[in-house]
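Notebook entry, structure prediction.
Reason for the run: the old model in the group folder had no record of what sequence produced it. Starting over properly, with the input documented here first.
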Amino acid sequence: MDLEKIEKLVNIIEKSSMLEFSIQEGDTKIKMSRRGSAGTPGEPLTVVKTEAPAEETVDENYIISPIVGTFYSAPSPDAEAFVKVGDVVKAGQTVCILEAMKLMNEIESDYDCEIEAVLVSNEQKVEYGQPLFKVKKLSD
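New structure, fully documented this time:
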């Protein structure tokens, strides 16, 4: 769920007579309440966002976003993607570009691995720590 959706929900709830509201989308759950500590209406709206803990097994790893930015799978719109599902990637190999503040940051793999899944789409906004690729580490 993106920030714009959350802001719209907050505005709708603030203008309504509802005292509490909750919604779950995938692993993200949002609960909003206008009740104060004594349960009285009229208090400022509180938004709490929780995410279910990610389950990882020994052979599952992820390449995560080191910054907030826009994800690009290729060096230019007409070029092929840096990597695709099934590709074997060497440590130090560029897997994508993240644009932040008009700077293009090449993101490299920290280890030899095989790309199992691309978890974001081209030109998608990504957050710090967000998984970009599901990978399987290769043994030395």
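Summary: The first helix runs from residue 3 to 15.
The old model has been moved to the deprecated folder.
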